[in-house]
Amino acid sequence: MVEYRIDRHSGVATYVQIVQQTKQALRLGMLEPGDKLPTAREVVEATAINPNTVLKAYRELEREGLVEARRGLGTFVRKGLSTTPADSPLRLELDDWAERARASGLGREDIAALFTAVLEKHFQGEPS
Predict the structure, then answer these.
(1) Rounded to 10 degrees, what is the CA torsion of 67, 73, 74, 78?
(2) Considering the entire predicted model, what is its pTM?
(3) Which of 14, 73, 72 is nearest to 22 (CA)?
(4) Cα–chain center distance at 9
(5) Would you list the DSSP string of 46-114?
(6) What's the chain's Rg over C-alpha atoms?
(7) Which contacts (CB < 8 Å, 24+ apart) does range 38-46 have?
(8) Residue 27: closest CA among 66, 58, 76
């Protein structure tokens, strides 16, 4: 099951963070079709956010066709976004790179900025 982490200082709306983290879990194969998302109550207890925020995120995911709400049962994944398994060689290489970057003294924001700059270079003009 996915565990949401809310960064209150990111400037990104809380519901958008939930949507993004769910999509990331789908892309990495951590969530697959048929899996149940945490209930709004479980997310509220874990993150101390408003239940309406969770419901807004889940409605957005439902609008995109990624999940479906089943009355009285919860919200379930309809389709995955996984193209690369979580244990792929590429992920392992990226993990090694991140370790080297951190060992060289770069902080989280520095690493994120560097990675984002490289992505921008390789995907210029393409929608995200």
Answers:
(1) -10
(2) 0.73
(3) 14
(4) 17
(5) HH---HHHHHHHHHHHHHTTSEEEETTTEEEE-----SS-TT-HHHHHHHHHHHHHHHTT--HHHHHHH
(6) 16
(7) 38/1, 38/2, 38/3, 38/4, 39/74, 39/75, 43/4, 43/18, 46/3, 46/4
(8) 66
Q: Which parts of the chain register pLDDT below 70?
A: 82-86, 127-128
Structure tokens at 38: 């945490």
- Cα–Cα distance between 76 and 10 in angstroms, integer? 28
29 three-state secondary structure: coil
> In angstroms, how far is the first alpha carbon of the chain from the final one?
25
Round to whole Å and give the CA distance between 7 and 25. 17
pLDDT for position 100: 96
The residue count for the chain: 128
> What token pair was written down for 72?
């009285």
| All residues at 6 or more sequence positions from 37 whose CB lies less than 8 Å from its CB, including other chains | 1, 2, 22, 31, 58, 67, 74, 75, 76, 77
